[in-house]
Amino acid sequence: MPARPIDAVAGELKERVARGVAWSIGEKVGTMLLQMGVSIVVLRLLMPGDFGVVAILTAFAAFAVVVVDSGFSQTLIRKAEPSAEDYRSVFLFNIGVSAVLYVLLTALSPVVARYYDMPVITQIAPVFFLLVPVNALCVIQHTIFTRRFRFALLSKVTFTASLVSGVAAVLLALAGCGVWSLVAQRVLQMAVRALLLWWLSDWRPRRSAGWSFAALREMAPFSFSLLATDLISAVYNKIPQLFIGRLYSAQTLGFFDQALKLKDLPVSSTMTAVQGVTYPAFSRIAGDGRKFAESFRQVTMIVAYAMFPVMLGLSAVARDMFAVLLGDKWMPTVPYFEAVCLAGLFYPVAMVAYNVMKVRCGGSLIVRLEVSKKIVLTAIFALTIPRSVQAVVWGLVVFAACEMVVNVWAALRVSALPARRFVRTLFPIACVAGAMYAAVRGVAGAPVANPWLRLLLEVVCGAVVYLLLSLLFRLEAFRELRDIVRKQFAAPPHEI
């Protein structure tokens, strides 16, 4: 069979990536709206201290999930043709490590409860930490579907799991179950996801595939490099919660943690979709420097064009949004939320650059960069945590900007994309988004007594100003996004 031209392969890959991102973002937007609705109901029914307790347990669970995977899933995605032995070896490794960590975390829960003076932790920890072994059960299925670009299917699974767990959380909160409604939501979401992935996947850990320590050892150098970076990131992402929970009240931790979570709804939703699709796509064109550089530029451009107005807009409308949707009980969260949304400007660009590094860099370089960034973050935490929670929030914004600069610098070094062209791509988007922010803040200061009406005016003003300026200045990102949307609606529906 004659080899296919590289342009034809690249064109097909671009189409699959576009459709994959469209499905993933569609699911993430749907899931985000669902989670937002659930959050509004649950936040109104529960007390801030309940969320502070769950924030502590979530921090420990996040470390465990990273250790369970140990970077092997990303190595399997990167590998040209993983064998059945590779899959089974990683699966058994995940199960074994998750069982050990579950026992360890449960045994340590009384110590954690005493340290934070939160006795309820001892009661809920054995149930909450079940999400660690349950997650380990479906890592391989998720990896295989990602390799096959089955993002439509993964999107449906994620949305279904969020729907089931969200409904359960609302019903339990209405029944007066308090913090247990949050525990049930987290564990049930993971359990439904695992059940659906097993049901839809044809992969099973058959004995005939064998188990090989040699297979794990072969993948270990790159996998453990990713483990080191992911574990460092997980630890530092949760350091504020761990120290705020100790130095301040559970209620204050609840305000801070919800500011981060509400900010993460659009950021994490979008970036999970983009990263999940672009990492395998970048891996396939890693050998073509020109196409790789242009793909890096275009993905960053589209992500920035979509996320800059969202994060600046959320910061601008925060006070009215909280007053309308959550009420006076959660108004202390507003200053944290207004500031931390600015970190959402930098995180998406940093994560796209990180994907580029994972494909084109050796694992040791990634580890060195992560260590350098975390040294800076350690200094920021040391200065801000004892001062105030607001200082911590602004420290996170500063670090997000530093992380973006470091990641982009490293990604540009290993790609053929000139730094000047990269800056010229993002600068007009930042200017238009900044003008939109100023316009929305102007409306927010208008003498409109009804907060519902003022919030509506702010949202409409922001959308109109952003689109009009995009048209006026003929932004490349606007044209590209418009063409992608048109192609998605024009293309015949089929499974990816």
Can you tell me about this structure?
Helix 1 packs parallel to helix 8, helix 10 packs antiparallel against helix 11 and helix 10 (213-247) runs parallel beside helix 14. This protein has helices at 6-45, 48-69, 72-78, 84-116, 120-128, 131-137, 139-147, 151-174, 179-200, 213-247, 250-284, 289-325, 334-360, 363-384, 389-413, 419-444, 451-472, 476-490. It folds into 2 domains: 16-243, no CATH class; 285-496, no CATH class. Helix content is 84%, strand content 0%. The chain has 18 helices and no strands. The chain has 496 residues and is mainly α.
At a glance:
With 496 residues, this protein is mainly α.
Mean pLDDT, to the nearest integer, reads 82
Number of helices: 18
Provide the gyration radius in Å. 23 Å
Please summarize the sheet with the most strands: none
Question: How many strand segments?
Answer: 0
C-alpha termini separation: 24 Å
Q: What gross morphology would you assign?
A: globular
Q: Low-confidence stretches at least 5 residues in length (pLDDT < 50)?
A: 1-14
Q: What's the number of domains?
A: 2
* Residues in helices, as a percent range: over 70%
Q: State which percent range the strand residues make up.
A: under 5%
H and E order? HHHHHHHHHHHHHHHHHH
Structural class given helices, strands, pairing?
A: mainly alpha
Quick tags:
18 helices; about 500 residues; mainly alpha; globular
